Structure formats: C-alpha cells, structure tokens
Amino acid sequence: MLTKQIIPRLDLEKILANFSLGKIISKKALATSGNITCILNTSTGIYFLRLCPNGQRWRSQAEGAGERELLNYLKSRNLPVIEALPT
After folding, report:
1. Rounded distance between C-alpha atoms, residue 58 and residue 68, angstroms
2. Contact indicator for 41, 33 with CB cutoff of 8 Å
3. In what order do the strands lie in the sheet with 24-29?
4. Cβ-contact 5, 37 below 8 angstroms
5. DSSP class of residue 35?
6. How confident is the model over 53-71, as pLDDT tens digits?
C-alpha cells in the first residue's frame, strides 16, 4: 500500500545541513511503500530525496541490484545521481 510519509521540517533541515542544497523553498511528499520520499525545491535546485524512516537497514542482494538498476536508469537519462558504493 502506498502512503505519503512525512518528515518534520526541522528534522529535514538538520539532515540537509550536511549537504550544500541551499534553503528549502518547497517540499512535495510522494507516495511510497515505506520510505520517506519527496521532491525538494531549494535555492540551488530541485532534488529527489528518499530516506528510510527507521535509519539504515539490511537489504537483500536482489534489493541492492534493484537500487543499482534504478540509479543506472536515472543516470542514463542524464539525471545527476550518486554512484552506488559497494559495502
């Protein structure tokens, strides 16, 4: 079931303080199956943010492969994405 998870603005600002994304202008929550997912419009650009509300969690090899596939797809469409780091 897809739901829109909410992250309080102060918590979001605390997380984003670690990055150079500028001031938050607007935030649009997106429906997801468990992660906090939103589109952020900031003074430096528009960003897609996805966070696990429970912090880090273990993922299966299939889930990891799916994440890498998504990142590669977005990158193939010339969207700026992070590189997956093997751990």
Report:
1. 15
2. no
3. 24-29, 36-42, 45-51
4. yes
5. S
6. 777 777 788 888 888 888 8
